[in-house]
Amino acid sequence: MKYFLFIVAFALSAIASEQRIICLGDSLTASYGVQEDEAWPALLQKQLNKEHTNYKVINAGTSGATSAGGLRKLP
Residue 16 above 50 pLDDT? Predict the structure, then answer.
């Protein structure tokens, strides 16, 4: 049985007052099987844009990623 772990790391940056949200995860984050604009990080970006927030969502999902690999990506 496979378990999917989605790790969403919030990296807040003061560059140009733009806040960044980095989405780490497996193929579901990386938009495997759907159009890139239909992946959940893209949908999150669309919702944030509707709410007129100054956030940029960065999709760092990788097909085949694991929770251990996700932890290695974090500082």
Answer: yes
